[in-house]
Amino acid sequence: MSGVSTSPGSRFRAALATERPLQIAGAINAYAALLVQRAGFRALYLSGAGVANHSYGIPDIGDTTLADVLTDARRITRRVDLPLLVDIDTGWDDPALAVRELAATGVAAVHLEDQIPAKLCGHLPGKQLVSTAVMCDRVRAAVTGKPDRDFVVMARTDAAAVEGLSDAIARAQAYVAAGADMIFAEALHTLDDYKKFTTALTGVPVLANLTEFGQTPLFTLEELRTAGIAMALYPLSASRAAAAASLEIYFAIRRDGTQRNVVGKMQTRAELYDVLGYR
């Protein structure tokens, strides 16, 4: 990784100041992060689902640990300078420790959520939330772990799907008062919903999660811009595409007894070496 004098958090904030909405692309590992960088994104993301699904082959239901996330985050930050936002679920047992250890690996920002520890994907039914007070305690604890003022602690609220939009906005306002730098508004349905969020949180950057096959339509950047959204997140788009393509190749090799019929769909060795910088 090339030497950079500014902190990761300041680089994340600089990217946000440069591009509105800031497109944040998901990367499940260091190689994916290299591809994100090559595509021209200014920030990248490591999701809890990415760690659970791809590093462990399990659903994202809160079974992965801080140590698991640290391993994947460290591999990414050692290879790519782009500021990295990391999903820390509910903060595990110690949000301050999670922030300190992730910051020490070169992470720029984290987000933690207001679900109970046995969490569900934010776009599934049946989510259960902790009280606003408990989440505010999580936020305050996370903030104490910040290595500098520029490191970003983002609070995610899943309340819109559980308690309604008004209560979700009230929770977000409380989380900002507790010290959250930015807000992750999960599973909203309309641009008007986002507009109400951003209007109620004047001056606080709000993130829209554009995960596929979920509750939120796949809005364009211009649509999000009109709603006042500061960040557009694409958490697993490339990994979903890669998984579908991989399965097609596996089936073809198993069926045909050779890869000849699908080799044209593969990345070449030269292309791989070019991404890796290996000559």
List keywords for this structure.
single chain; 279 residues; alpha/beta; eight-stranded parallel barrel; 12 helices
Present the secondary structure layout:
Layout: H1 8-18, E1 22-26, H2 30-38, E2 43-46, H3 48-56, H4 66-79, E3 84-87, H5 95-104, E4 109-113, H6 132-144, E5 152-157, H7 159-162, H8 165-177, E6 182-185, H9 191-200, E7 206-209, H10 221-226, E8 231-234, H11 237-256, H12 269-276
Parallel strand pairs: 1-2, 1-8, 2-3, 3-4, 4-5, 5-6, 6-7, 7-8
Helix pairs in contact: 2-4, 5-6, 6-8
Q: Short description, anyone?
A:
This protein has 279 residues and is α/β, with parallel strands linked by helices. It is built from 12 helices and 8 strands.
**Largest sheet entry:** 8 strands, parallel, barrel
Provide the gyration radius in Å. 19 Å
Helix vs. strand class: alpha/beta
Task: Count the E strands.
Answer: 8
**Strands of the largest sheet, in order across it?**
1-2-3-4-5-6-7-8
Q: Which shape, going by the Cα principal axes? A: globular
Task: Average the pLDDT over all residues and give the rounded result.
Answer: 95
Helix content: 40-55%
Strand content: 5-15%
Straight-line N-to-C gap: 17 Å
Order of helices and strands: HEHEHHEHEHEHHEHEHEHH
Continuous helix count: 12
User: What would you call the quaternary organization?
Assistant: single chain
Low-confidence stretches: none
